[in-house]
Amino acid sequence: MKTISENTISDAVRELCIEAATKLDEDVKAAIKNAAETEESPLGRDVLKQIVDNYELAEEKGAPMCQDTGIAVFFVELGRDIKLEGSLEEGINQGVRRGYEDGYLRKSVCDPFSRKNTGDNTPAIIHTTVVEGDTLKIKFAPKGAGSENMSQLRMLKPAQGVEGVKDFVYEAVKTAGGNPCPPIVLGIGIGGNFEKSAILSKKALLRKIGSKNSDPELAALEAELLIGVNKLGIGPMGFGGIKTALAIHVESAPCHIASLPVAINVQCHADRHKEVEL
């Protein structure tokens, strides 16, 4: 049985926080560069080139690529054969405190009513699943408010079906406009119940850009939605063009016979996420 300490978790999370804020994954870089090369609007191309310059400079200087370094969201897979020394939750929160302090990252977490800042970007939002094996996998996404605030959840009628889902997605993207700093990535959670659909939509954003759902019908829906969203003409940063979205990822789960929950989690072009396996 493998033993993992609270301090080991804290050290790993500290690094995840700093890396995610300063370095985009290669799949995201490639998608943005491809968008810059294929965007038809001259202004849109210029905007995308500035986005490329920004993330390259952030990585070179070790500085955040965006001033909104987000609320810390984690998806954790905990192997049942692991022995934890200390608290998983406290290890993650301590790592967030250290990462945001050491990386000079903006601390954005506050009380919902008084708006008093917690001062250390905690508590983190942690989703934990127990799995087989003796590994601990931690996936981290700093979620900024500009895109998060454009996210929506709707309890559709079952009779609305897949056409209702499409209509909801297009409506949500049109409502968001340039606010979430497009080109965006959409995570769409379908099914489960109210909270399950939202978790699915958030988890969908952790997939690599360009990946397809293993279900052929959902993969086809992803492709159709991406074409439809990019036909809306919102374009990079809302200035018009054909690159409103870089990717659309759909995840689903069985739901109650009387409901059809659909959650749309919007992510800006800085699709920041990192993971580590201990």
What's this entry about, in short?
The chain has 278 residues and is of the alpha/beta class. The chain folds into 2 domains: 2-20 and 65-143; 146-275, no CATH class.
Structural commentary:
The chain is of the alpha/beta class. The chain folds into two domains: 2-20 and 65-143; 146-275, no CATH class. The chain has eight helices and ten strands. The chain has helices at 6-22, 26-38, 42-61, 88-102, 145-148, 161-176, 194-204, 216-230, and strands spanning 2-5, 71-79, 82-85, 125-131, 136-143, 152-156, 184-192, 245-255, 260-267, 274-277. The chain has a four-stranded mixed sheet. Strands 6-9-7-8 form a four-stranded mixed sheet. A two-stranded parallel ribbon has the order 1-3. The longest helix is centred in the first third of the chain and has 20 residues, at 42-61. The protein is globular.
Strand order of the largest sheet: 4-2-5-10
**Total tally of structural domains:** 2
Over the alpha carbons, how many angstroms does the gyration radius reach?
19 Å
**What is the N-to-C succession of helices and strands?**
EHHHEEHEEHEHEHHEEE
What oligomeric assembly is this protein in? single chain
Largest sheet: 4 strands, mixed
> What fraction, in percent, of the residue positions are helical?
25-40%
Which structural class is indicated by helix and strand composition? alpha/beta
Note the gap between the termini: 13 Å
Unreliable stretches, pLDDT < 50, 5 or more residues? none
Shape: globular
Number of helices: 8
Task: Let me know the number of strands.
Answer: 10
User: Approximately what portion of the residues adopt beta-strand conformation?
Assistant: 15-25%
Instruction: Report mean pLDDT, rounded to a whole number.
Output: 98
